[in-house]
Design goal:
mainly alpha, 6 helices, about 80% helix
Length: about 200
């Protein structure tokens, strides 16, 4: 059932948000430290925190994709009409450069609209806010490091210390938005799961 999978994914997301918040705080500490004395030494004991962050990030991403895949598969099985995106392509869109800036949003949007007993054609205000807060935060979290890397290549040849300081600031900002995206997706999972329960009862 989608509800059980949704609860499992939500648990993963909470774990990911917890470790992300820890990374967020650590990065702020290092940014302050570096701004004061221009030294940056990563404590070996914190390497495990960053490792867990990367592992839980992939668990969060794959869990999100799997939930949307199973939700869309359920929509096909119960005969929802006019579905544009197959359950197989739900996961593929996330890994195609440039297309992954908008196609996952369109897939999740269709999955959300199709989770009602009758497929809706337009997002309500609740769905609109949830989906855009999730996807807006996700895209910002992805493009901020890319933009920073481009700037860093120019700055590094001019001022190494400034490029490292900017990199830390960009990481902090990206982490903030990835936490926001993860928490927003919890609301989407709950909405889709709740709609399925209503559909089954009716």
């Amino acid at each position: 059932m989608i509800q059980k999978l949704g609860k499992e994914v939500i648990t993963i997301i909470y774990l990911f948000c917890g470790i992300s918040l820890l990374v967020f705080i650590i990065d702020i500490f290092y940014l302050i430290q570096y701004s004061n004395n221009k030294s940056y030494v990563l404590d070996d004991s914190l390497s495990f925190v960053y490792f867990m962050y990367k592992m839980l990030y992939w668990a969060f991403l794959l869990g999100t994709i799997w939930f949307v895949h199973k939700s869309q598969l359920y929509n096909f099985e119960r005969g929802v009409k006019d579905l544009k995106y197959s359950p197989t392509w739900v996961g593929i869109w996330w890994f195609i450069p440039f297309l992954n800036l908008w196609m996952p949003f369109k897939v999740v949007k269709e999955t959300y609209l199709s989770s009602f007993q009758v497929k809706k054609t337009k997002l309500d205000i609740h769905g609109y806010n949830n989906l855009w807060s999730w996807w807006g935060s996700w895209v910002l979290a992805k493009i901020i490091p890319v933009i920073n890397n481009s700037i860093t290549r120019i700055q590094y040849s001019l001022d190494t210390s400034a490029s490292l300081e900017n990199a830390l600031a960009a990481d902090i900002l990206a982490t903030f938005f990835i936490i926001s995206a993860a928490l927003s997706f919890i609301t989407i999972i709950k909405s889709i799961s709740a709609n399925e329960i209503i559909t089954i009862k009716e």
